[in-house]
Amino acid sequence: MKNKFVVALLIIGGIVLLNIAASFVFFRLDLTEEKRYSLSDATQSLLENLSAEDSTDVFVKVYLDGEELPGGFERLKRAVTETLEEFKVYGGTNINYKFINPNAETDKKKREEFYVELAKKGMNPTRVVDTKNGRQIENIIFPYALVSAGGYEVPVLLLKGTQGKTAEEKLNQSNENVEYELATAIRKLTLKERKKIGLLAEFTKLKPLNFSDLIASLQERYDLFIINAKSSPTFQGLDAVILPKPDFPVDDSTKYKIDQFVMSGGSALFFVDGLKVDSVGLEGNFAQPLELNLTDLFFKYGVRINSNIIKDGASCAVIPLVVGDLGDKPNIQPVPYRYFPLINNFGKSLITNNLDLVFSRYVASIDTVRADGVKKTPLLMTSPYTKTLNAPAFVTFNDAQTDTEQTEYQGGVKTIAYLLEGKFQSLYKNRLLPNDPKFADFKAESQPTKIIVCSDGDLIVNEVSQKTGNPLPLGYDKATQHTFGNKDFVMNAIDYLIDEDGVIQAKGKEVKLRPLDKLRTRDERTFWQILNIGLPVALVLIFGFILQWARRRNYGTT
Questions:
Q1: Cα distances (angstroms) measured from residue 112 to each of 116, 123, 128, 312
Q2: Which of 279, 382, 482, 508 is the most exposed place for a label (fewest CB within 10 A)?
Q3: What φ, ψ does residue 395 adopt, rounded to 5°?
């Protein structure tokens, strides 16, 4: 008995010492295969810095709540809860949250007023029809969170997935994005030091109104400067430069500044067209070569934009087109237009992970060329069913009314955007003489940096409403009234280029779907039910029998 008493004291003492040690040493273990309950290092750092500043308090209101949430949304709610709990672990008292049921108000008028209030803040409801007890029930769900800090607030859409995916896959993508979306909102509200981005807009015919959504989105996260490239002596001091849809050739002086900016470790994003498309009438457009004085620069960095236009026979947007007469009026119907590919084929990158379809217009193919020390990652790709037209080419609208012939579209997958990473060689290496004034500061090889080249200048252009004259959201398609993933692509790209260790790393989280085998669950249902119910009971009985037998043997009791 004395030995047993000593053992018991040692066990209790060990537990006490373990708890004391745990109060000084913080650690958490995530035993899941994909580390679904772990936060990225960047998110942890963001939250810990909040804790260091007592004045920074973040409050999150989650409107994804209710007693009758469908199963998929209940899992999404659980993912949000688990993520916010992890946020509190690292953010401490500076992070607080609350779940609010938008349908809790019993008074219909007050409930609808609350809906309107949420809509004014940019949070629109999702209507979901669910089957329960053999009856169809329509649920009004607000898959949003409202993150507030420092007197400002940002709505966060929690339900984000790729068009064409099943409902289950979209919800799974949303689960993967929860940490990134919430962390991005917190970063936007609490960021003290902002990166600097330059927009080289003097080479385009478009007005600032056509880039208004891009400009507004950039200004929320970064310090944005509209650069006069020709008069600026250098681009140093910026973290990245963007060349948006140039229509005029880039002068040699600006090209040299871009090259030396990259050599100094700066990042660059090029959204340029392969061909110039001009309207020639109601029948179509005429595409001809577009000389931008950038071919040699891109070639040196490892890519070549071809002078062609891609037709995608399997994935394309629709345009309103007159297909006949309806009485005495023209019959206008949405018709697939193969010159406007909808990009649903993405390379493996944090930039494109869980990205919605990207809307493109008159895109060219990009080929890679040798560039030692440069890693080339395709980001945006067409479907395999493509056909290319080389310049000059007549782009007809009547083409939209013809059926896609598989034998005609055998061009294979075409890439329209590349991520280039590594050490780049200067285009002007071995070109400058020692007596040239530029020679003293010239850099022949870059520091490790990143570049993105996209062969669609329209990808970052927002349309303008003909009725109101106001800009439409970037990626908005008037024919389908759907906003595609263009803005997410651009913002993800910039985050990746200039904030490599930032919250963009959270987009690498993967939550794997592990569906049950439907045939086995049908054929072996009884077996697994008996196993799951009977095995725990059998184990308890066996353990009790062994314990009773051991007691009889040691103490001779009956």
A1: 6, 14, 17, 44
A2: 279
A3: -100, 105
For residue 295, the Cα-to-chain-centroid distance in whole angstroms is: 29
More confident residue, 14 or 511: 14
> What does the pLDDT read at residue 538?
83
The answer to whether the CB of 360 falls within 8 A of the CB of 459 is yes
pLDDT band at 2 (very low <50, low <70, confident <90, very high): low
**Roughly how many angstroms between the first and final C-alpha of the chain, as a whole number?**
21
pTM above 0.85, yes or no: no
DSSP state of 397: S
Q: Do 347 and 379 meet the contact criterion of CB atoms below 8 Å apart? A: yes
Q: Cα–Cα distance between 186 and 282 in angstroms, integer?
A: 49
Rounded distance, CA 489 to CA 472, Å? 17
Element (H, E) at 360: none
Enumerate the H helices of 302-455 as residue ranges.
Answer: none
Measured CA to CA in angstroms, residue 199 lies from 124, 214, 341 at distances of 32, 11, 26
| Whole-angstrom distance, CA of residue 243 vs CA of residue 438 | 23
**Cα separation, 382 vs 387, whole angstroms:** 11
Nearest one of 354, 353, 358, 407 to 385, comparing CA atoms: 407
DSSP state of 144: E
The strand pair at 415-422 and 374-381 is best described as antiparallel
pLDDT of residue 230: 86
For 462, other C-beta atoms within 10 Å of its C-beta total 21
Do 102 and 114 form a contact (C-beta atoms < 8 A)? yes
Q: What is the 3-state secondary structure (H, E, C) of 316-351?
A: EEEEEEEEEEECCEEEEEEEEEEEEEEECEECCCCC
Q: CA-based Rg of the chain, rounded to a whole angstrom?
A: 30
Question: pLDDT tens across 29-59, in order?
Answer: 554 555 556 788 888 888 888 865 545 689 9
Tell me which range, 89-98, 197-206, 541-550, is most confidently predicted by mean pLDDT.
Answer: 197-206
User: Which element (helix H / strand E) includes 126?
Assistant: strand 126-132
Closest CA to 415 of 448, 452, 466, 443: 452
Q: Residue 440, Cβ neighbours under 10 Å: how many?
A: 8
**Alpha-carbon span 60 to 186, nearest angstrom:** 9
CA angle 153, 154, 158 (to 5 degrees): 140
Partnered with residue 445 across adjacent β-strands are 425
* Cα separation, 279 vs 282, whole angstroms: 8
The residue to which tokens 């790393």 are assigned = 505
Residue that the structure tokens 């062969």 belong to: 455
Per 3-state DSSP, what percentage of the chain is helix, strand, and coil (rounded to 5)? 35, 25, 40
* Interatomic CA distance for residues 337 and 357, integer angstroms: 16
| Residue that the structure tokens 């040691």 belong to | 554
